[in-house]
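Figure 2 data, in text form.
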Amino acid sequence: MNSSAPPRMAFLADTTFTSLLAALAVVVGTGRAAAAPFTIQGPEVQETDFRISVFATNLSYPLGMARLSDGSLLVAVSQGQSFWSSTGELIRLTDTNQDGIADAPGTVLYSGLSGGQSSLRRWGQLIFVTGQGVGRPISILRAGPTPAAALTLVGKININYPSGGWEHPHSALGVRPTPGQPGSCDLLFQLGSDQNFAKTTRTATMSSTGIPGAAGTLAGESIYMLTLTDNLTNVVASNLTRIAKGLRNSAGFAFHPQTGDLYFEDNGIDGLTNPDEPLSADELNWIRAAEIGNGTVPDFGFPTNYTEYRSGAVVGGGGVQPLIAFQPLPDPYTGSESEGPNDIAFAPARFPNGLNTGIFIGFHGRFNLGGIANEENPLVYVDLAATNYFQFIGNDEPNIGHLDGILATDDSLFVADLTATGDTGAGGNTGVIYQIKSQVRGILSFHRTDNGLELSWSSGLLQQADSLSGPWNNVPSAASPYMIPIDPNHAQAFYRTKN
């Protein structure tokens, strides 16, 4: 916030409402102090609507991110020169002055995890983190009494693979509160196909250490859901459920904040002659909330049903069709490519109109290349209403490797570049986290009703004070529109929104 400029005020008063005086205000952040590290683009996208900053640098393969209770970030990193032969840690990054730059390199809250950490999710006091593949379990940890306190290990869920390799092992996590079960959450994970372009007939198994009930047989090409109940002294698992099948290598689970629908990606079939020229398009898929774990298992068609890359031809025609099949833009034969979707996040609510109701998706692109050599690694915005998409960060940025990690807050998008060099075998300490923060002004308006005043605003948190000088406090769980009843015992009240 710019302390030298007072917030804009608009006062309202009405003789019928002498017991209430509301002040409507907008608090606006400062603009960028330095040149943006990359260019953003797209229909009606204005760079001046955002502050883009290098939040943290010299990180070793940052990927999973979660927000802690005080707004600080918990980040999964894999310490070592190679992503594949590393040691996993969870570090906390703070930004106390809100300038878009982390205060320090980060405090280690937990160490000793397996390397190659690929996904991190938080639910309440529980932290879920996993690496990719054999020997990298899903670890469940508990937060301490403060956000800065060390985490403690609750237990581990192991995915056990048969001999002979598995091309697309587990790597992604999702979590939601279990509907109708306070104190429980549903943990999602995937088990992809064991080959590039063939039906998976083998199975894996689940076992656990310290998580009673986490056991079962797992089919490939699937998404699974496991209910976890937190008893504070331990965590108990139940109801292992297959919720989707016919998926080559799904990733990036996100639940719609209003509907509860599940959105996720699936990685397309690699080319049979040239692996860098895909046979099928990557996809964005979804499952309605009412269909998640209700006994039906939607089949998305792999390997016999898919959308052909570039031509857009639907092969097979069976299975659930994708919401989006990602093709090069604007021309599928000559346009700019987006390949290898990894993480996913719903847009921050306080992003500008046109960018605040869809989904952001990070594409890894070519496996070990970065910069201009990686022509497949953009950050894409998907407009769910129009079911179209564009590259918000293009695939021609010279200093970006793989934008594989995404975290959305109410006003910011944090994007993790796994390694700016692109090299997962020798790119230790070259990871970067960027913050893209909305700078749009909120508009707070009101109208009179029979019951009081109804406030409406386009972005920001609603705050209330008893005087203009404060103190200002967030109104808990306030959402637009918000009704203010008339209280004859409360002489005046002031309201504003704050970004």
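Caption note: Residues 1-33 have pLDDT under 50 and may be disordered.
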